[in-house]
Amino acid sequence: MDIKTKQVSEYIWEIPKEGDMVVPGRIYADHEIMQHLIDDVKAGKDWNALKQIKNVACLPGIQKASLAMSDVHPGYGFCIGGVGAFDMETGVVSVAGVGFDINCGVRTLATTLTKADVEKNKQKIADAVFNTVPAGLGSTGDIRLSKEEIDEVLVKGAEFIIERGYGTKEDLKFIEEEGKVAGADPATVSDHAKKRQFKQIGTLGSGNHYLEFQYVDEVFDEKVAEVYGLKKDQVLISIHCGSRALGHQIGTDYLKKLDAASRKYNIPIRERELVCAPINSQEGKEYFAAVCAGINCAFANRQAITHLTRLALKKAIGLDESEVKTFYEIGHNTAKKEKHKIDGKMKEVLIHRKGSTRAFGPGREEIPEKYRSVGQPVLVGGTMGTMSYILHGTQKGMDDTFGSAIHGAGRLMSRHGAIAKWKGDDIVKDLASKGIIIKAHSSKGIAEEAPGAYKPVGEVVDVMHNSGIAKKVVMVKPLICIKG
User: Fold this and answer.
1) Which has the closest alpha carbon to 386: 475, 484, 448, 463?
2) How many structural domains is the chain composed of?
């Protein structure tokens, strides 16, 4: 297998359009990130990101380029860090372009606490949050819903949870789409998917999901940080999770349905998870409606966890709930209808972002009014032993990547490889020596998420910053990390 690549600028490589490719592939990377991708191909690994970028470039109706951000690594069908925009008339909607954890994303809360405040009560806070927010594989919470209520969640999203007294309407202003996307239809979601969700609203889950207390360690852009209300040593709380079992079941259900649709509409499929259907076909409409339902479910889940986190802090240190505000929330496994300039004209397209976050530049009305002048906050998760970042969207990002950027560091090593190399207990001890408390329900889960299993997040962020796609605002470091 040989995949031709060429460097077109300091931080952009392309896979030239050839054969069945509708558009070229485009990768945002430095030399080290790119070399890792090329080495996978040279080693004969069939599961590699460059092949997936090329496969996506062959899908009908794709616009401009099959994109990969600098956190790129192999996924199912689409690479993680992949972005694809599709024409509403000739394009397709694909399971792989969304993934199985629909609307997995990050909500970051801004508190009135400083690093010193948390240091004084670190263990007490860690214990309270760990005992209040359910986490782990198959975890269930105290919020139990009927079938009718599940349907309401799938339509109303975070709004449903707030109506039940979990949070305030002020939270909604700072959630992508105000916590609810249009177009969700509970009828397109199987009863099995709904049953798997009855007890999972307000639960963190497992894998790479986390709830992390962080402090602002470095401010790169004073002006934007001031607009965002961020300052040095301020404590933030980031919640990373998604639609839990419901989203996974939607993906599983529609993998079969869109496999049949791919054959029905004679769409060549180069990897199983790339099965798709024309956006305007019955199958395409049903899958998109189910994805919207999954998106709303994840919004509701993060809203419930926000409420539980506030309760834990009140119990632990008496912090009033009003002192823990939603700073921003954004998803990174989505398919959404958006308007972008293509060939000089504004055009509605269906954007698939797989392990990639929306990163809109200044002036877009979708951004909360408070942040609109400087662009949307871009929440980039690092590892529990290093750091994370908040960036802001730019006009260049709007022009070049459909307003998309990285969502995290990106894996360097498989979960299996990480387990073989590290032991969870050793990681907990090592990070404790550095002042970071890790509390988890699974030692194996900690090993899977070892900091060394990920790319250096600073390097990944610098590619976005130096290429002008999204610019650095602040860097945050962990104090407490709750894992599944």
Assistant:
1) 475
2) 1
Question: Which 8-state DSSP code applies to residue 270?
Answer: S
Euclidean distance between the first and the last CA atom of the chain, given in angstroms as a whole number: 39
Containing structural domain, residue 16 = 6-94
Nearest Cα to Cα of residue 189 among 197, 178, 200: 197
What is the set of active-site residues?
407
Identify whether the C-beta of residue 305 lies closer than 8 Å to the C-beta of residue 241.
yes
34's tokens: 């790119």
Q: What is the pLDDT of residues 59-81, one digit of tens each?
A: 999 999 999 999 999 999 999 99
Instruction: Pick 141 or 179 by higher pLDDT.
Output: 179
Write down the pLDDT at residue 224. 98
- Domain assignment present for residue 74? The answer is yes
Residue given tokens 């699974």 in the structure block: 442
Q: Which residues pair with 15 in a beta bridge?
A: 25
Question: Which 8-state DSSP code applies to residue 381?
Answer: B
Residue 70 in contact with residue 94, Cβ under 8 Å?
no
Q: Which residue has the tokens 């966890």?
A: 305
SS percent in the chain: helix, strand, coil, step 5? 40, 25, 35
Give the tens place of pLDDT for each residue, 107-156: 999 999 999 999 999 999 999 999 999 765 566 566 777 788 899 999 99
> pTM of the entire structure?
0.96
- Distance (Å, rounded) from C-alpha 382 to C-alpha 401? 22
Q: List, in sequence order, the alpha helices (H) in 408-449.
A: 415-421, 424-432, 443-448
- Return the H-helix or E-strand segment holding 349: strand 345-354
Q: What angle do CA 406, 288, 250 make, to 5 degrees?
A: 85
Q: 114 in a domain, yes or no?
A: no
Query: What's residue 229's pLDDT?
Result: 98
The C-alpha angle with vertex 226 and arms to 221 and 227, in degrees rounded to 5, equals: 105
| Domain assignment present for 274 | no
- Cβ neighbors of 321 (< 8 A, separation 6 or more) are 310, 311, 314
Q: DSSP characters for 281-338?
A: SHHHHHHHHHHHHHHHHHHHHHHHHHHHHHHHHHHHH---GGGEEEEEEEESEEEEEE
Cβ atoms of 80 and 411 closer than 8 Å? yes
Q: Do strands 377-380 and 437-440 pair parallel, antiparallel, or not at all (unpaired)?
A: unpaired
| Cβ(350)–Cβ(279) below 8 Å | yes
pLDDT of 273 reads 87
CA–CA distance, 479 with 322 (Å, rounded to integer): 22
Backbone phi, psi, residue 237, to 5°: -130, 120
| Paired tokens of 376 | 């949307």
Say if 71 falls within a structural domain. Answer: yes
